[in-house]
Each structure stands twice: as C-alpha cells, then as structure tokens.
Amino acid sequence: MKKKLYCLFAAILILLSNNLLLAEGTKQFKPVNADFGNLQINDQSRPFALESNTNPLHRLYFRINNTTEKVLFGFQHVGAGAGTFRIKDPNGNVVYARTTVPSSGAGFITNYSQATIGPKVGGVPAGGYSPFSYQPTMVGDFYMEFTTDVSGTYHFDLFDLTVATSTNTPINGRLWSYAWDLSTRGGTNAYNGTFFVYTDEGYVSSLYMNGIQPFGFVVSSNNTGPQNTGNITVDRRSVTGNSTRPMFKVFLNNPDPVVYPSAPAPVITSPIQIVGGNVYYGSPVQFTIGVSNPGTVQIIISCNGVAGYQPNTNDTIIAVGVIAGNNTITWNGRDRYNVF
C-alpha cells in the first residue's frame, strides 16, 4: 500500500477579542443564570486557594499594575459552614486581614444579576453589589486565601473579583489561576464557561467547555498533557485519577494586553520535505520542517488512499516537539494499526 504524507502544522491560535464584560467570576463561570459553575475550595482535599496551601501553582491571583488601581470583590456562600478570607501581597505578606465571608451587607452578592453587573461604587452601576475594597500599595500578583470550618467542600454560588482604575472603571483580564477548582454541584449538570490560557511565550488561546458534565473539576494547562514522559502522543492521552499539572496562567477573560501582551503567532518558515527513507515500503522516513517558534507539530499521514485524515482508519497522526528553526522528524513507516 502506498503511503502519502499530508502534513499539518498545529499552531496555537492567538485570540484577541473586545471583551466588554464588567465583572470577573460568576459572569464567566455561568454565562446565563440557568448555567452551573461554582468556585469551590477544599474539594477532595485539593489545595486551591486555601490558607494552608504553600504551593504557588494552586492560588487565586489578581494582578495590580499601578498603585492607583484597586480590587473590588464579593461572595455568596452556599451550603453549610462558615469561612474566612484574606489577601496577601506578591511577597506573601498579609495586607487584608482575615475576614468572615459575609452573609449580608458589604461584600455579599445577593443574586446572579448583581454578580454579573459587578461591583457598585457610589451607586454606580445601578443593580450591582456593594463590594469589599482593597487599595494596594505595590504592583504585582496578589492572591486571596480562604479557610472553612467544614471538613468537605466549601462552595461559592456567586463570586466576583474585579480590578478597577482609580475612577472605578473595571479592567478585565486581571483575575487568574494556574488551576481553577470549580463545581457544577451535580454529575449531570453542564458547564458552559470559557477560559483563556496565557502561555510562557505569550500565546493566548480560548477553551470553551461546551456543556461538559464534570461535577467537581480542575482547569489547568501545560505544554504536554496529563503526563510528561517525553512521548507527546502518550502524554496527551486521558488518564484516570487526579493528574493536574498546572503550568500556564488561566484567565476568565482575554488577558489584559497592557500587562500580558500577545506574542506573534508561530508560523512554518520552510515547508516539510522528505530527506530520507522510502515512503512507499514501510521503512522509516525522515523529513525536515522549519518553524518560527518552539511548539508541537502534528503530522497527518494518510494511509487509506483518501486525502486528509479519517478517524478509525489506517490514517495515523504523529506529534513531536520542535524548536525554532529547522527540525528533522522521523516516522517509523507504519500506520495507525502498526502495520505497513
């Protein structure tokens, strides 16, 4: 059987959007009121945003870029138990003392409408909630921590944390975590939120969750997958159990471009070329490709006589990590079922 090479370079797309949302939290977790999506802490003893957590990859961060900025925030806890919160500065110092999560008054979000309208300062905007407020004295990544008196999961049905200018204008794309811990509070409840991943190189990509039904879940992103064995194809496969490997910042809105500028999209600088082997007889084949940035190249190898890739056929996909510049890649000459 003749095997022809059809090659596809899979680059991360940069997504730029004019996002006009005025709140960060529930408005993204639950795009409409009928949706499901709670921020949660202490689920299955995971460390996310807990005061006892010492791992920086499991914190709830917000970015301050100017000391004229402020953070406005509020909650609605649902379920049993009581909780507290506090804020630490980028150096780990407590700058907002431990405070009880409110059940009324300042810092309490009464309903979904208030959460999505956002914090109200001086009566504006009408319909918003009355927030807690903190005015930082330095720039950097601050983080909020929680405690709870329950042994199990502590849920926030409504949550908002908005960074704003000195004139109370919200700045989107400042709230982030390496590993969001969320819940739909039911095994058949759908989640319809969208996340924005910001890589170390500055690539931005969005992930729409498309109604998945996860119950409790963690959203994180890295450059290999659930595993990091060096075999990209294996590393990207789903696995059982808790395999969270946080690496990249994950936002609820497009990251603020003032603080998090987007990098140029990676491109192919020289087309793929076969440089060794015999593509027709099942022997290993070597080919080269040039790319502008490090990343992952996916190569579709059509073995069924139909152009393109058809799932569950002899067609196969190989994925390899590449560096900027020219790369040599080897295919073993076998199809999806490991035959010629």
Q: How many strands, what sense, and barrel or not for the largest sheet?
A: 8 strands, antiparallel
Number of strands: 21
Q: Give the overall shape.
A: elongated
Oligomer: single chain
Average per-residue pLDDT, rounded, comes to 89
Rounded to an integer in angstroms, the radius of gyration calculated over CA atoms is: 24 Å
Descriptive report:
The chain is mostly beta strands and 340 residues long. It contains 3 helices and 21 strands. The chain has helices spanning 26-29, 112-117, 232-235, and strands at 4-8, 38-41, 60-64, 70-78, 83-88, 94-100, 132-134, 140-148, 154-164, 170-171, 175-177, 179-183, 194-198, 204-208, 216-220, 249-251, 268-277, 285-291, 295-302, 316-322, 325-331. The longest helix has 6 residues, at 112-117. 33% of the residues are buried. Residues 1-21 have low confidence and may be disordered.
